[in-house]
Amino acid sequence: MAQETLNSESPPAAPAQELSVVVEKPQVTEKEPQPSAPAPLPEPEVPEKPAVVAVEEEAVEVEKPKVEEKEETKITQSVSFKEETNIAGELPEPQKKALDELKQLIQEALNNHEFTAKPEAEEKPVAEPEPKKEEEENKEEKKEEKEEETPAAAISEEPKIVTDAPAAVEVKEEDNTPPPPPPAEAPAAEVVVVETEVAEKAKAVDDDGAKTVEAIEESVVAVAAPPAEKEKEEPSAVVAPQSEETKEAQVPSPPPEEVSIWGIPLLADEKSDVILLKFLRARDFKVKDAFAMIKNTVSWRKEFGIETLLDEDLGNELEKVVFMQGFDKEGHPVCYNVYGEFQNKELYQNTFADEEKRSKFLRWRIQFLEKSIRKLDFNPTGINTMVQVNDLKNSPGPGKKELRQATNQALNLLQDNYPEFVAKQVFINVPWWYLAFNRMISPFLTQRTKSKFVFASPAKSAETLFKYIAPEQVPVQYGGLSREGEQEFSVADAVTEVTIKPAAKHSVEFPITENCNLVWELRVVGWEVNYGAEFVPTAEDGYTVIVSKTRKVSSADETVISDSFKTGEPGKVVLTIDNQTSKKKKFLYRSKTKPYSD
């Protein structure tokens, strides 16, 4: 930075730099498009790296230096987020354990149908306490009755001195096994009678031992027969509840419910792990908190009607407010939010005038996000996050109550139900009042979310975007070269990016072979420079051809200059940019050659 300021204050040194640039740049121009993706490192001119830092510094000087220092740390923190893996086998042990625990909780919830039967599960415990008390009291009374009956049973067992036949014992066992505990008590009392009657008959027939045995057998059989008949009758009353229980046991338990989010089941394969890791990271790997967040998200999606929302026709009035275009240098899709469109009073009234319209806007915004998410790759090595670019140029101020309400509502919904879908939040054309507004809502944002924020003033917005998004991917209205209806150039054609110092010239040379058609396009962010192009033949006796006469180009004239030149002799086309201002300029260009025959 110190070198840059010295160079800017010493214009007389500029002419020496012009000559060096003219000679060296033509060789670099063909090599630069290939390493343009890695960012400013391959650039021979080091000022580009400080330029991005200056973007953040100036944005903060306008709004407050403390915030600027935080932004720099936030950008460095965001790099660590990109290094996080979604492959379960590569996670640290604590994170693996948290993921396994979360899977267990979800599996139990699916088995118990907690995602669909949540309200019923909450109502039952409220009405059950009183019946439980009555059951406990009944159990205590039954215990007391049993304790009163046990002495009689003990006494009845004492006269069992008589040598009973084994048949009598077998009858008792058969009486006790089939019925439940209540009917088992009745036979016990009847057996006592049997035993007393047998004892009396045994005393009455003392003279003949054989007769006593026969009498015993007859009495036992005669008395034991009625309980057998009772057993046949009692099961009819007792079997009824058993049959219901058996029927319930025979009915197979319902299979675990299937719950999906963004088209991915909660428990299925590696894609499911990616979804669960988003919730875990949003809650700092606190398993219970992440599980509660998942349940709340599933419940909200059902209440909001997400699946039916995808098929709703909500119009296209807001297609210029929010749109997807291009990818950043790491392959994340980029979503642009243009709040300045709401300066249109008619659009503003149609969107935020009343609660019904604000609700429709919210549903449209959620629908747009859902459709964008469905296009992401949820494989562990895929890209499943996006970059958000928020253009605050001409956006309505904080006095717009309706917009503020809709924004806060959308912000809460997105943070609670769409965790870890943003790789970067870039705010461009930031006005002075926005940082104050950001401080108001920042307490409601997690530190992880705030660490992804980047702010840029209007003068540094294009440079800030180029730090994360290649110029060929940036829309032309934001300083890039991406335009609709492109024919000669596409996103696949890389752009070379050069910083021109104040009061300096920069030249670019495109070599041409015989029978060649050279096509190029260029732009200078902010323009206010002089531009010219000429063809210089290789032959010494050839004549220089002026392709484009040197002229001053302002920002209001045109955003992108496209030109071409055909020739049948070898040579080179030289483009010259003369920056006579006191500010650095960002120069973008690309070219291609096409063979042709006369």
Automatic annotation (TrEMBL):
<feature type="region of interest" description="Disordered">
    <location>
        <begin position="1"/>
        <end position="189"/>
    </location>
</feature>
<dbReference type="InterPro" id="IPR036273">
    <property type="entry name" value="CRAL/TRIO_N_dom_sf"/>
</dbReference>
<dbReference type="Pfam" id="PF25099">
    <property type="entry name" value="GOLD_PATL1_C"/>
</dbReference>
<dbReference type="InterPro" id="IPR056794">
    <property type="entry name" value="PATL1-6_C_GOLD"/>
</dbReference>
<dbReference type="InterPro" id="IPR011074">
    <property type="entry name" value="CRAL/TRIO_N_dom"/>
</dbReference>
<keyword id="KW-0446">Lipid-binding</keyword>
<feature type="compositionally biased region" description="Basic and acidic residues">
    <location>
        <begin position="93"/>
        <end position="103"/>
    </location>
</feature>
<dbReference type="GO" id="GO:0016020">
    <property type="term" value="C:membrane"/>
</dbReference>
<feature type="compositionally biased region" description="Polar residues">
    <location>
        <begin position="1"/>
        <end position="10"/>
    </location>
</feature>
<feature type="compositionally biased region" description="Basic and acidic residues">
    <location>
        <begin position="115"/>
        <end position="145"/>
    </location>
</feature>
<dbReference type="Pfam" id="PF03765">
    <property type="entry name" value="CRAL_TRIO_N"/>
</dbReference>
<dbReference type="InterPro" id="IPR044834">
    <property type="entry name" value="PATL"/>
</dbReference>
<dbReference type="InterPro" id="IPR036598">
    <property type="entry name" value="GOLD_dom_sf"/>
</dbReference>
<dbReference type="GO" id="GO:0005737">
    <property type="term" value="C:cytoplasm"/>
</dbReference>
<feature type="compositionally biased region" description="Basic and acidic residues">
    <location>
        <begin position="61"/>
        <end position="74"/>
    </location>
</feature>
<keyword id="KW-0472">Membrane</keyword>
<feature type="domain" description="CRAL-TRIO">
    <location>
        <begin position="311"/>
        <end position="486"/>
    </location>
</feature>
<protein>
    <recommendedName>
        <fullName>CRAL-TRIO domain-containing protein</fullName>
    </recommendedName>
</protein>
<feature type="compositionally biased region" description="Pro residues">
    <location>
        <begin position="35"/>
        <end position="44"/>
    </location>
</feature>
<keyword id="KW-0131">Cell cycle</keyword>
<dbReference type="GO" id="GO:0051301">
    <property type="term" value="P:cell division"/>
</dbReference>
<keyword id="KW-0963">Cytoplasm</keyword>
<dbReference type="GO" id="GO:0008289">
    <property type="term" value="F:lipid binding"/>
</dbReference>
<dbReference type="Pfam" id="PF00650">
    <property type="entry name" value="CRAL_TRIO"/>
</dbReference>
<feature type="region of interest" description="Disordered">
    <location>
        <begin position="225"/>
        <end position="257"/>
    </location>
</feature>
<feature type="domain" description="GOLD">
    <location>
        <begin position="488"/>
        <end position="593"/>
    </location>
</feature>
<keyword id="KW-0132">Cell division</keyword>
<dbReference type="InterPro" id="IPR036865">
    <property type="entry name" value="CRAL-TRIO_dom_sf"/>
</dbReference>
<dbReference type="InterPro" id="IPR001251">
    <property type="entry name" value="CRAL-TRIO_dom"/>
</dbReference>
<dbReference type="InterPro" id="IPR009038">
    <property type="entry name" value="GOLD_dom"/>
</dbReference>
<comment type="similarity">
    <text>Belongs to the patellin family.</text>
</comment>
<keyword id="KW-0813">Transport</keyword>
